[in-house]
Amino acid sequence: SRGLGDVYKRQPLHRALSLAEHAEANSVYYSEARRLGELITRDTLATGPCEMVVMTGGGPGIMEAANRGAMEAGGKSIGLNIQLPFEQEPNPYITKELCFQFHYFAIRKMHFLKRARALVACPGGFGTMDELFDALTLVQTGKIEPLPILLMGRRYWQRVLDMQAMAEEGVISDQDLRLFEYVDTAQQAWDRIRAFYDLSSD
């Protein structure tokens, strides 16, 4: 029979497998972010004046996907990149003259939210959470005008953030649960944004 030593040796492999399975499940959001970048850019170019432009954190992964979709649709996109000791090189799909480098997170977020007309948060880590809760807090407290805050991937977000529990604990109000919506596809996200701003579908 196998001893405890064999069990412990196998744990890192089980963990690696679990992470790989989650990565595979979440890879769909790369495709959806790319599609959203395409939808926003294509529809905006078709209407004439530049009403909406894709803006991301400028890094790899899902951020890259949105910039890529915009480029493939024939438009420009913005990247607000930040200097980090790992992982944060500007992706190659940002419009060159619209790639900006920041040193401080706070200044970067200020520029994001000063210009944002919608926020679509795809599954992510601490940085994504930081930006999401900053936006929610500023809308909740009336420091910025309301805007669509869309959480892409209901399964992920409801698993990692139990907003309903926060309301039940009384730390946020039931009304605060209306500050955001869940979406699962790029088309759903774009439809919500268009409806919020009453953009014509012509």
Topology readout:
Layout: H1 4-26, H2 28-47, E1 54-56, H3 62-72, E2 77-82, E3 99-102, H4 105-115, E4 119-121, H5 126-140, E5 149-152, H6 154-160, H7 163-169, E6 181-183, H8 186-196
Helix pairs in contact: 2-3, 2-8
Biggest β-sheet: strands ordered side by side in the sheet: 1-2-3
Biggest β-sheet, characterized?
A: 3 strands, parallel
Mean of the pLDDT scores? 90
Kindly estimate the percentage of residues that lie in beta strands according to DSSP.
5-15%
- Shape category: globular
Low-confidence stretches: none
Radius of gyration: 19 Å
- Distance between the ends: 69 Å
Number of helices: 8
Number of strands: 6
Give me the secondary-structure category. Answer: mainly alpha
- Helix content range of the residues, please? 40-55%
Order of helices and strands: HHEHEEHEHEHHEH
Can you tell me about this structure?
With 202 residues, the protein is mainly α. The protein contains 8 helices and 6 strands, in the order H-H-E-H-E-E-H-E-H-E-H-H-E-H. The chain has helices at residues 4-26, 28-47, 62-72, 105-115, 126-140, 154-160, 163-169, 186-196, and strands at residues 54-56, 77-82, 99-102, 119-121, 149-152, 181-183. The chain has a 3-stranded parallel β-sheet with strand order 1-2-3, with helices on both faces. Strands 4-5-6 form a 3-stranded parallel β-sheet, sandwiched between helices. Strand 4, helix 5 and strand 5 form a beta-alpha-beta unit. Helix 2 packs parallel to helix 3 and helix 2 packs parallel to helix 8. The longest helix has 23 residues, at 4-26. It is globular, with a radius of gyration of 19 Å. The model has no long low-confidence stretch (mean pLDDT 90).
